[in-house]
Amino acid sequence: MPMKLSLVNRLRCPATGLKLYFQASIDALQYCSSDDVSEGFLVSEDGKHHYPVRCGIPRFVPPTNYADNFGLQWNKFCRTQLDSHSGHPISAERFWAATGWNPSDLKDRWVLDVGSGSGRFAEVALCAGAHVVALDYSSAVDAASVNLHDYDRFHVVQGDIYALPFAPASFDFVYSLGVLQHTPDVEAAFFALPKMVKPGGELVVDFYRKSWRSVLLPKYWLRPITKHIPKNTLFGLLERTVPVMLPISNAIAAVPVLGRLLRRLVPVANYTGMLPLSKQQIREWALLDTFDWLSPSYDNPQTPKTVWRWLQTAGLQQVEVLHAGHLVGRGRLP
After folding, report:
1. For residue 144, which of 48, 73, 212, 193 has the smallest C-alpha distance?
2. Residue 87, by phi and psi: left (phi above 0), alpha (psi -120 to 50) or beta?
């Protein structure tokens, strides 16, 4: 998927904030004038900073980083959670419930998807007619590029939430779903986002909710160990154990009264009876999300009070904090 030079107008050097220009090679004397480019460099206006463009994707971060597990999982399961692949509007329902937006709100608007993964929510926004810029820290950008390359309004950037490579106030809508709790400093990650929103634009974020119940989840008992296991090793281990744990989870769930609660103690993501998936899809989603539970370097749930405070401090209006599958915070920039 080539990078469109129309995207470059919204990009900025993350080190200096200066404009960026495309060069076909680091030594080129002439800037490329084609609208679609696949390989080359983005050069800061002062000429001091150079960022590669590979496979049509601007790359502002090192190839290996703390989000490697997400790159691995989204390239292995590149289409699993796309509604166009599953045949069910699971991602769409979560997206619209969390954001509170309507498809008509997004038509022809510029939208930033922070932590896009393989593009499950970007696909929803694209289907609504938005111009979507999908940013991820990991190599999941490559999966997203392959998945959504048919959309002319789709752009992909590999970048760091703590040094976003965009001009301030570039987007009508900004969202980050299922991401911020996996960053090293959740508060700093959140406060990087409001400055990307245009006046009158909207921001939506969600988090795992911090509560006494979350302490009981087995992933938090296991993660101090599993997050240190090499990611490919952990994935191979789960490939063998998830098919065993799923029937155990289902058997416990069948116990009268307490079964559905008790099955949460089995360390496997089990969507049986919860999502309209086939048995094969249940197994695939179980492996994907169990890996997602146990592999991240960081997992920091938040409380409603904290999310409310952040939204207010950021100067957002019409603030809402609610439960929509996850703990959701949203608001509008004046």
Report:
1. 73
2. left
**Whether 287 contacts 242, CB under 8 Å:** yes
Q: What are phi and psi of 59, to 5 degrees?
A: -120, 110
Q: Count of domains in the chain?
A: 3
State the Cα–Cα distance between residues 6 and 17, nearest whole angstrom: 18
Question: Furthest-apart CA pair in the chain: how many Å?
Answer: 73
80: number of CA atoms within 13 Å, CB side? 18
Tell me the one-letter amino acid at 150.
D
Last residue of a domain, one of 14, 30, 56: 56
Task: Report the alpha-carbon angle 234-235-241, nearest 5.
Answer: 90
Which domain covers residue 249, as residue numbers?
212-294
Residue pLDDT, tens place only, 43-68: 999 999 999 999 999 999 988 777 77
pLDDT digits (tens, 9 = 90+) for 122-146: 999 999 999 999 999 999 999 999 9
Domain membership of residue 61 (yes or no) is no
d(CA 140, CA 212): 32
**pLDDT tens digits, one per residue of 270-280:** 999 999 999 99
> For residues 206 and 98, is the Cβ–Cβ distance under 8 A?
yes
Does an H or E element contain 329, and which?
Answer: strand 326-332
Cα–Cα dist 183/189, whole Å: 7
- Three-state SS at 196: helix
